[in-house]
Design brief:
mainly alpha, about 65% helix, 2 domains, about 120 residues
């Protein structure tokens, strides 16, 4: 790329038109790039992958530049999250029960030692 010449930017509508035309007319990546005057046929391949994975909306997302520094927190499905919360509550109840049982057993042992 010559120095000082900015990268060409394509709109989401243009990308969608290229991919849909390529699929409809059964064009190769090179043929589609030539027809729409795109310098690199690999760019068309990249757009098609995004289109197939994310749908047409994915072509409208700006993907240039650095990604974010932090890792976003994982989102669990609602049913999995509910199951995990229910298990935590059950384990807390079981833990409280065992503590009380241990305290009762210790008290009984103390009383038996007193009687002897």
């Amino acid at each position: 790329m010559p120095k000082g010449k900015p990268n060409k930017r394509y709109t989401g509508e243009f990308k969608q038109e290229v991919v849909e035309t390529m699929m409809r007319e059964k064009l190769s990546y090179r043929e589609a790039a030539r027809q729409f005057e795109i310098n690199d046929h690999n760019r068309v391949r990249y757009w098609e992958r995004i289109y197939l994975e994310e749908g047409p909306e994915g072509l409208y997302i700006e993907r240039r530049g650095r990604g974010s520094k932090g890792r976003p927190p994982k989102k669990l499905k609602a049913e999995i999250e509910e199951d995990l919360l229910a298990e935590v509550q059950r384990l807390r109840a079981e833990n409280a029960y065992l503590k009380k049982l241990n305290a009762l057993v210790a008290e009984r042992v103390r009383q038996e030692r007193k009687q002897k």
